[in-house]
Amino acid sequence: MGPSWNDRRLERRVKPGDGKPLKPFRWWQMTRRSLLSLPLPVGGGISATYTVEVKHGGDPESGVVRARLYRDGLCEAESKLPARFPVPGGTIEVRRSEVGMRRCHFVADGDGSETRLAPDPRSAEGRRMNFAREHPAASALVGAVSVVLLLIGVGLNLLQAAQPISEIPYIAESLGTFESPLRLPVWLNVTLGIGAVLGATERAMRMRYHWLLDGGAGT
């Protein structure tokens, strides 16, 4: 099966890069910039390193968040997100959520197998990956806490949204109104909201995403 209409649309958005060299990663960019790389064979027994750069604050001039593709350290292409870059042997797909990276994978032509690009060890994603490798039990606990925080946030959002929706006249006449059983103080609502954002951010460092859990955490 060939690429879908949406895949072709994303590929048409790709523009040539400016050829500028990739700047080294600095420690203060840990949460503001993502760098992920993968070596790929380009023929004749030669391989090239492809690197995706995403600056989460967007371009200084426009504020638009873009992905830039570098080949052996030189900018070869760029695209608005979500992005789909054609590369030798397949494509590199890049997506971002409101709080960080959502996806950065090489998808092979033919069998469609996927390989995640490796994050720079100094980036937030790289540090989180190293933590998981060195402390697997603690990493699993942190991941579980993130899911719990997001589940609480989703549950509270549903309860708070149900009451005003039930007060719409047509719904109220048909089903009656719903009164939320929870009356949380403002400080607790804010605290739980911050917890949900932190949970979504932690999952973004691992490029884990679920539309229900993570979709509204950063909005």
Largest sheet: 6 strands, antiparallel
Percent of residues in helices: 25-40%
Q: What's the β-strand tally?
A: 10
Could you state the order of secondary-structure elements as H and E?
HEEEEEEEEEEHHHHH
* pLDDT < 50 stretches: none
CA-based gyration radius? 21 Å
Helix/strand structural class: alpha+beta
Could you say which overall geometry the principal axes of the C-alpha atoms support? globular
SS element count, helices: 6
Mean pLDDT: 87
Distance between the termini: 36 Å
Q: Looking across the biggest beta sheet, what order are the strands in?
A: 1-5-4-3-2-10
Which band does the percent of strand residues land in?
A: 25-35%
Keywords: Membrane, Transmembrane, Transmembrane helix
Transmembrane segments: 137-162, 182-201
What attributes does this structure have?
single chain, 219 residues, 4-stranded antiparallel beta sheet, 6 helices, 10 strands
